[in-house]
Amino acid sequence: MKILKPTVLVVVLLCFINTSLAQQRYQIHVDNVKPAMVKEYEKTAKKFVEACEKYNPQGPWITASSDNLKYMYISPMDNFAELDKPLYTDMAKEMGDDWSNLFMSFDKCYDSHTDFVITLVNNLSYMPEGMSQMQEGQNYRKWYYLYYTPENSQKMFEAMKGVKEVFVSKNSKEYYRIYRSGFGCPENFYLVAVSAKDELDAAMTSKANDELLGDEWKEVFGKVMDVASRFDQISGWMRPELSYSPK
pLDDT value at position 246? Predict the structure, then answer.
């Protein structure tokens, strides 16, 4: 895991607090962990959480890991100036060599990592019981990436809007959050995040939803696919034990 400037250890999808902010941004840091190094990586990540709990830096994060071994660290942003906040400077000084050794342990676990910003899009998200990034007992995640070219940005927005309208009209029980790509993303995309108890629960909820929406779902989703340049589906889990919140 990389600390950018003394800035940020940042973070995934889905913040630990409830929010209704129309333009809530999240900074995401992704470590692409080697298959053979997962055990070592998680051991080091837990050590970092323990160190943060001891030194109490004022930078919270939520962690998620995907089935393709991406570890995502997500934190809310008020503005882009936060990218330069020296959140870990004092902690690094107090830890001395232990700080360097900790991140040397991280660095041998992956060959690449990335950072980018995404924005929660409330008016496309479907959370009728209130916007919430984390739901109790629902740490399993399905993430759907819908990519589109700049010329199709408005068409994709309208298509996603049509999807929500059908979910609302049918009173669907499958809820989702929508995020839009931003600073640091090489392509335009909408990210759809769906929570569930586990893989079986996700499959059963999706099947029931397909039956509820019927042919209308095929029509509106078809419009999304018509303007999408590509589509990716990833599953994984939120990882509370690898997350941190200041005291």
Answer: 93
With tokens 């769906």, the residue in question is: 194
If you ran DSSP here, which 8-state letter would residue 170 be given?
T
**Identity of residue 85:** K
Report the C-alpha gap between 106 and 95 in whole angstroms.
Answer: 16
Residue 188 pairs with which residues in a beta bridge? 148
Q: What is the pTM of this model?
A: 0.86
Please list the alpha-helical segments (H only) found in 78-197: 89-95, 97-107, 153-169
Cα separation, 85 vs 60, whole angstroms = 13
Q: Which residue has the tokens 């479907």?
A: 126
pLDDT at 50: 97
Q: Helices marked H in 112-198 — which ranges?
A: 153-169
Length of the chain: 247
- Reported as a single tens digit per residue, the pLDDT across 198-245 is 999 999 999 999 999 999 999 999 999 999 999 999 999 999 999 999
The count of other CB atoms within 10 Å of the CB of residue 67 is 10
